[in-house]
Protein 1
Amino acid sequence: MQNSLKVERARNNISQAELASRLNVSRLTIHSIEAGKFNPSVQLALKLARYFNVTVEDLFMLEDEDL
Amino acid sequence: MEFSSLNRHSYRWVGLIISLTGIAIFSMLLVLDFRYVENWEEKIFIINHYIIILGLVLLSYSLEKTEDERIRTIRFRMLRFSQLLTISGLIGYAAITILDRVEFNLYIIFYIIEAALILYQFLFRLFLRTNPAWIFRETPTRKAKSIIPVVCLIFLIGWLIYAIIEFKI
């Protein structure tokens, strides 16, 4: 699964640590999601989408191999 | 998100202090070649092992300062590994004891449990920092899936060979 979290974070000019603190997760969790290592739960994906004021589909995209 | 089945973060420090105290007392007893009133020496060692295990369990089942689903995934995977290690160790030790290869020793049981808990702590802390991608993979690879059945099969074949040789079936 791909994601545009890093792009959205840059657009909103917010650091990993700050975003982590706002969503009550660790900084490494944000880093893992951005690096594509860790797929967040629906709850965290919705929280991220709500924070950046975008839809979950804008933030997370399925790849061909996921289909 | 609820993590009610785990202790509060502060219990981690309590667990750390208890287990380190237990390990310090254990080391001291060994270094000083401790001798006490007859029959008491063993009881002190056993109680001390209980203290170490209690501390390690408190440490293992306590929340992190910032608990989230990534940490929970790593904890689950490492606890599963630790559990598998403990069960394998205990079954393996029971098997060699039943076969009269070694004499039963209660301390070995304590050492197996303590080693599994300490290894769990080490790996959990390590993977929290190194964050390896394979730990979050939902479906294990075909190779990983076949490890446990292969190990069980090897154990079964070994046992059958032993039974045939030993009991001349």
Protein 2
Amino acid sequence: MSAVPLSYSLRNLWARRLTTLFTALGMASVVFVLAASLMLAEGLRKALVGTGSSDNVVVIRKGAATEVFSGIDRLQAAIVETQPEIAIGKNGQPLLARESLVLVSLQKRGRDNQSNVAVRGVGESSLSLRPKVKLVQGRRPRPGTSDIIVGQNIAKRFQEVGIGQTLRIGMRDWTVVGVFDAEGTGFGSEIWADVDQLMQTFRRPVYSSITFRLRDVSEFEKFKAHIESDPRLTLEAKKEIEYYLEQSKWMATFLRVLGISLTVIFSLGATIGAIITMYASVATRTREIGTLRALGFQKRSILGAFLFESLLLGFLGAMFGLLFASFLQLITISTINFQTFSELAFSFSLSFTIACQALFFSLIMGLIGGVFPAFRASQMNIVDALRTH
Amino acid sequence: MFPLKLVVKNAFRRKVRTFLTILSIAIALLAFGLLQTLVNSWYAGANSASSYRLVTRNAISLAFSLPISYKDKISQIDGVQEVTYGDWFGGIYIEEKNFFPNFAVEPRGYLKLYDYLIPPEQSASFLRDRRAALAGCKLRDRFGWKVGDSITLKGTIFPGTWEFMLAGFYQAGVNDIDETQFFFHWDYLNETIRETMPHRADQVDFYLIGVKSPDLATKVSLAVDKTFKNSLAETLTETEKSFQLSFLAMSDAIIKAVQLVSLVVIFIIMAVAANTMIMSVRERTAEYAVFKTLGFGPWPIMVLILGESLIIAMTGCALGIALTIPVKNAIARALSDYLPIFILNTKIFLYYAIASVLVGITAAIIPAWRAAKVPIAEELGRIP
């Protein structure tokens, strides 16, 4: 006779269903915390990776960590604009936008606190450079006016940003004419205005950044070398994707470290819970185990049956935990990104990889919880086991 | 008579199981305590803020600056004792991961407003030399700096590489003050900027105002903001505390998540403890039947189970308290560069006690109710 039937393990879990439920719930909370922290990091990554396009390039002042602290004067901008690597748009103009980024403190809706919102001064090509940004309400802003459009995350969370309302920024009234959706990317947490109007309002003689599309993606290195060796320019070029990834490095690390340390501590507690359950499960079934052995089941099969039972516990835990965690996808977190110093909203995002990782982790907890009790069960002396009452 | 002896004996009958349960309660409480401490240390800066100090910044946002000419106007306002100013410099020391806050400040007023402990000769040499810098003593321990060292920072907001002479180190007068900051002369910064980027010269990020008495804080801040109303750079003045809090409020979503998680921990221990009690009671069903046969009602049996559960939970609580202090110290040492302030609030132990009583009671509810309810004949006949 080889293996103990799987139904034996299944029915055992069912026979002690309250205990099974509590152990699985303990594991489920670990899975929940693990999945939640991974989902948050994934959501952040999605928001920022998605913000950049692979064939776009961002040019900022050398050494500036973000657009906010960067400065490019008009002469430098003109030199960048004439580079041959820049793609030409349908209207015959280069697909390039000189942009200006300022941070403005705005009042949050329904709460007493303020947060920094990035206001981006945009040019005519800015929208076509960001295919993910789509107007969902209202109209495009007219160039050269004080029209502004706001990202959906801003429209939801801040005061005075509904269509038709005026927003006072820099001693000037701006009219909200549209709301745009940015498919969960960082642009959704911005306000867009006309670049020249914005610079005039804040008396800034310099742009913050220049973004353009490459004529051919393979020409990036050539362009970069060209720009960075030009003695008239003190600029650096970055692929847009990499630029936005760097923006969130600090926060991504913070979330990861926090998530991992929490999971490790929590899993200690839940694994102990599994050990307790499995030991008790073995202790109360001494006679059963003796009977199984007497029937001819091998030590190996007993070990396997108990390990399987414990893995099942881990599996149940993972399912509960992931079920709860999947509801988190409805939540959007809005916080300050300490690197750019501006508001950034992102959601929990559950991916197949995360589900697998959480399941794997839960099974490991089940395995560790079950291995010693299962070993004890398999090592029992048949006669002694049968004699216990 | 409360059968304490029986309760204790019951609790420790299954030694391995009880020990594991106690251990998991202790670990979970430890996690809860550390998370709460993390949240507290997040707010530590705001707690240490003095009500004598006001912060004035550009009303648009922190990223905009104010002209240096405001200084004299502010110092003329009634109730103002001291005015100093500074810039967030945001320089990088060798590599990005060596992050520490660095500021360009007007040094004389700044040292008057903050009670740092600095050896007098170091403080004098910091004030004397334009290129001098003052660092927190934790930076000294982290990078092994010595007085007189030359420190180079790479500017991110102000381009270029900047060299400073380390004049001394400060220590915090009170417990909650950040000892990882780095200060140097604003004049040194401004001189260089005037040559390289004239349009950004003579600007400061913030003014710090010392008021004569805390009751004047509101009056002075209104007066300051009124003075610059309708100018090109309108100001926003608030107490240092509300300035810090508004700063922290921007990131409160993350802190709320940490707090939520620390409550999930309590849920885990409830599950583990409840599990242990359920199993113990199930094993002893026959014993409870004997009690009932002898004439004991449901209440004494429930008290027995509840007492056992509480004893396990409280022992876990004691172990948790014993573990918390050394673990917290180890973490504070390991993370001192990133979390400058990591101080345990002793109130946390009160929360431990409350949480463990709660866990003890909830864990006992289901088994106690079951044990009290089931008829004797069924209990006696049941196979353990």
